Structure formats: structure tokens, C-alpha cells
Amino acid sequence: MMTTATKPSSVDPSEIEKFSRMAAEWWDPTGKFAPLHKFNPVRLAFIRETVAAHFARDAKALRPFEGLSLLDIGCGGGLLSEPMARLGFAVTGVDPSEKNIGTARAHAAQSGAAVNYRASDAEALVADGLTFDVVLNMEVVEHVADLRGYLESTAALAKPGGLMFVATLNRTLKALALAKVAAEYILRWLPPGTHDWDKFVTPNELRAMLEDAGLKILKTQGVSFDPLGWNWRLSGDTDVNYMVVAAR
Questions:
Q1: How far is CA 204 from CA 10, 208, 234, 235, 239, in A?
Q2: Spatial strand order in the sheet of 241-247
Q3: Bridge pairing between strands 231-235 and 216-226
Q4: Residue 3: per-residue pLDDT
Q5: Strands (E), 106-169
Q6: CB–CB of 162/136 below 8 Å?
Q7: The CA-based dihedral angle spanning residues 122, 70, 34, 220, taken in that order and rounded to the nearest 10 degrees
Q8: Which of 111, 132, 150, 215 could in theory staple to 144 by disulfide, Cβ–Cβ 3.0 to 4.6 A?
Q9: 186 φ, ψ (degrees, to nearest 5)
Q10: Strand ranges (DSSP E) for 96-151?
Q11: Are 154 and 125 in contact (CB under 8 A)?
Q12: Count H helices, E strands: the chain?
């Protein structure tokens, strides 16, 4: 644990500026973050079932995770933080963008969600000696400046026996075609320039870096978009979107 100095931040200032410009739109289900609103139900269900199984909790209970702490790192406007708080977690939502945190706090004040929001980064949390039962690292790793350093810091934030979820995009031609070209330039689901394909990471690369950071890989889960049902679903296809679950 680092207590006297903070590691250099893995934050990419250009990425923070990009998402800060869209901060007011986080909670608009038809705005620039519409894909995340569509994505939320499947990832929320996956997190709920996985955490319940790991900590022997009843996933069907109203607040099954009372007594457990959760960090939503790169929380944006709080699209995951708020539902996690309603499930009973003591939630800390952290984002390096002051504007994102402002949006998240304002929405939580309206909804009544009990979330502790901080404008900070992973390295500062490690320096503060903080750890959590669950760390959500969702759609963040493809936006950081130093991936290995970032994963080392976020892995250190998981308590012994705790879990970390990482959701990201695979670096494949299929992902380039669908998640970058189609989503940003053809369908206009995302603003052009949202993603940099060179920052996409393969499951093998991600798992290796998580293991190097001291975590044990528990599961790799593909997520696919169903154009017929116009929704997301869990699948065996990791070519575009996928999630990795690891434990300390």
C-alpha cells in the first residue's frame, strides 16, 4: 500500500475532456449515452447474479448486498452507481471529471440514491488506503493512458476475497467494424471519436494483466447486441463486447 506518495495518474486528459463535454447528457436515454442505457439491464443482472453467488447472498432479495462496499471507478453520471446503491451496497462512485461527478451528484439528490461521489482517480484511492468488496471497472480501460498501471491500481482496490468486474471492447476487426465504424459513423449511436480502436484490448491481454496485478480470473463473459430484439444479451461471443470477472 502506498501511503506517502501517489503513483502518477493513469488518466488520459483528452478522454476526460471528451466525456466532460457530454456530462449533462448522462441520464438522457435518447442522448449520447443511449447505448449505455440499453446495455445497463444485461450488465446489472450479470453483476447481481455473480456477486450474489460469490458472497452467498440471495440475488432475489430486495437489498441483497447490505454490508458490502462497492467502487464504481469511472462512474460517469452514475448509471451503475445508483442501481448498485439500491441493491444495498455502500457505493463510492469515482470519476476524474468534475463535470461528470456534478451530474452524478445532482441526479442522486433527485432520486434519493445514497452514493458517495468523488472527483478523483484510482491512484489517489490507493494512496488513501481504500479497499472495497466489489470494484466495477466498466467501459473504462479502453480510455486510460496507462492500461497496465491502471489495472494494477484498480486491482489493489479490491479487498482480499473481493471481486473486480472489467467490461471493455475486444481489439478485433469485427469490433472495429461494429463498435467503431458502424456505431460512431453509420448508426450514430455514439459521437464520432468516442473510441480509439488501438486502445481496445483482447481478453487474453486483459486476463494476463489482471493476473500480473495479483487477481485470479473467474470468468470471461461475452455480450452481444441482438438487432431483432434491439437489446443486449449475454453470449459466448467475445469478439466485440466482453466482461472479465476476477477475484483477489
A1: 21, 6, 19, 18, 12
A2: 115-119, 90-95, 69-73, 132-138, 158-169, 241-247, 216-226, 231-235
A3: antiparallel
A4: 43
A5: 115-119, 132-138, 158-169
A6: no
A7: 90
A8: 150
A9: -105, -60
A10: 115-119, 132-138
A11: no
A12: 8, 8
Q: Residue 151's closest CA among 172, 132, 165, 170?
A: 165
> What DSSP designation does 142 have?
G
- Chain segment 148-205, per-residue pLDDT in tens: 999 999 999 999 999 999 999 999 999 888 766 556 555 566 666 677 878 899 999 9
Q: What is the pTM of this model?
A: 0.89
Give the three cell numbers for residue 92: 463510492
The DSSP bridge partners found for residue 233 are 224
Tens digit of pLDDT for each residue in 135-163?
999 999 998 999 999 999 999 999 999 99
- Which of these, 166, 2, 207, lies nearest to 73 by C-alpha position? 166
The residue with cell 470468468 is 219
Q: What are the b/e assignments for 83-103, b being 16+ CB within 10 Å?
A: bbbbbbbbbbbbbbbebbbbb
Is the pLDDT assigned to residue 118 strictly greater than 70? yes
CA 167 distance to own-chain centroid: 6
Model confidence at 244: pLDDT above 60: yes
